[in-house]
Amino acid sequence: MPNIAASKKDFMALQAGIVGLPNVGKSTLFNAVSNSAKAQASNYRFCTIEPNTGLVDVPDERLDKLAGFVKPERIVPTQVAIVDIAGLVRGASKGEGLGNKFLANIREVDAIIHVIRCFEDENILRDEGPINPVGDKEIIDTELQLKDLESVEKKFSRVEKMLKTGDPKIKAEYETLKRCKDHLEQGKSIRELSLSKEERTAIADLFLLTEKSVLYVANVDEASMHTGNKFSEALKAAVAGENAQVIVMNNSIEAQISEMEDPADRELFMEEYKMTEPALSKLIRSVYKLLDLATYFTAGVQEVRAWTIHEGWKAPQAASVIHTDFEKGFIKAEVIAYKDFIQYGSEAAARDAGKLRIEGKDYVVKDGDVMHFRFNV
Ligand SMILES: Nc1ncnc2c1ncn2[C@@H]1O[C@H](COP(=O)(O)OP(=O)(O)OP(=O)(O)O)[C@@H](O)[C@H]1O
Ligand SMILES: [Mg+2]
C-alpha cells in the first residue's frame, strides 16, 4: 500500500503530475496514492487549487524477496512524488480557468499522468458533452501544444535576429526551433518528434510541456475495471501511435482500497472485486519506468532498502544517493547481481560462489544490483 512519508523532497524524488480536464477523477487518483496529504475530492470543479504533492512507495517484489532472505529490521522502498494538478479547460493556454497557473504546475513535473474520463455518470459535471475520451485527450494536448508554441516562437524570433552573425551554432539552434515550431503547428507534441542530443539541448531551457513523457489512465466504471470498455478501447486506439501506456482502472475503487487501514478488510474488498493487487501498484511501477529510473539495493540486517538512480549512473554517483560522503570518499563498491543474491540466498554464500564483484569508480550500476560501498571521509 502506498505510504506517504513526511514531505521529504530530495532531488531523487522525481515528480509525476496528474493532468486532465476538470472532474475526470484526478484528485480521486491522488487520494488513492496519498493517505495523509489528502486532496479534496468532490463533485466540484477546481476543488484542487494548489497542487498537492505526495510521496508514494514504489512496489518492487525484488525488495520483498531480498528481505525474505536477509530478514532485516526494516524494509525501505524507494519513492516517487505524485502531484495533483487542477483541471485544465479549453483555452487554458490563453489563461482560461486559471490555465496559466496550472500549466506552470505542469512545467515543474518530470512526467505526466493524463487521466481521461471513461465512465458515464450524469451526476458528475462535464462541460464537453457526451463522454469522449479521444476528444478530451485532444483538448488537453492542444492546450499544452499552444503553450509550447508560445515558448518556441519567443525563442525562435530571438534566434532569428541573431542569424546574421553567421554563427553555425545559432544556425543549428534556429533549425531546431523551426522543426519544433512546424511540428507544434501541425498539432503534434514534441515527444513525438525525434530529436538529436544537440537538438534536445537547444530547447532544454524552454522546459516544454509536450516533451515530457506521458502515460494515460482510462478511468472506467466499476463493471469495466478488468475488461475496459468502449471508451478505454477508443483511447487505446487513438494513442497506439504514440507508444504510450494506457492503464485501465477505476480511480474511485482504488481510493476506497487505499483508505482501508486494516489489511484484512482490504484483502476482502479486493477479493470481492476479483483483484489480485491494487491497479495503483501497477500505475506506480509504470510511472517509475516512465521517469527512466533504475533501482539498486542495499541489504543489511538492519535495513534492506531500494535506492533510485538514473539509467547509466556510475558507482560513485549512485553512492551519493545514500550520502554525499559516500561519493566524496568513494573507494570501491562490492556488487552482487540481484539474481545471484537470490540464487545463493545470502551475501556470504554469493561471495563463496565467486559472485561478489569488486567494482571501481567507472562501474555503471545495473538495475537490481545489490551494493555495498567502501568509502573514507
Ligand atoms: N471511475 C469513476 N466512476 C465514477 N465516479 C468517479 C470515478 N472516478 C472519480 N469519480 C467521481 O468523479 C468526481 C470528480 O472526481 P475528482 O474530484 O477526482 O476530479 P478531478 O479531476 O480532480 O476534478 P478537478 O479538476 O475539479 O480537480 C468525484 O465525485 C469522484 O468521486
Ligand atoms: Mg481535483
TrEMBL record:
The UniProt record lists the keyword Transmembrane helix: no
Entry function: ATPase that binds to both the 70S ribosome and the 50S ribosomal subunit in a nucleotide-independent manner.
Organism: Puia dinghuensis
Gene3D superfamilies in alphabetical order: 3.10.20.30, P-loop containing nucleotide triphosphate hydrolases, TGS-like domain
Ranges for domain OBG-type G: 14-269
Stored InterPro entries: ATPase_YchF/OLA1 (IPR004396), Beta-grasp_dom_sf (IPR012675), G_OBG (IPR031167), GTP-bd (IPR006073), P-loop_NTPase (IPR027417), TGS (IPR004095), TGS-like (IPR012676), TGS-like_dom_sf (IPR023192)
Keyword Nucleotide-binding appears in the UniProt entry: yes
Taxonomic placement: Bacteria, Pseudomonadati, Bacteroidota, Chitinophagia, Chitinophagales
Name under which the protein is recorded: Ribosome-binding ATPase YchF
GO cellular component term of the entry, any: cytoplasm
Molecular function in Gene Ontology: ATP binding; ATP hydrolysis activity; GTP binding; metal ion binding; ribosomal large subunit binding
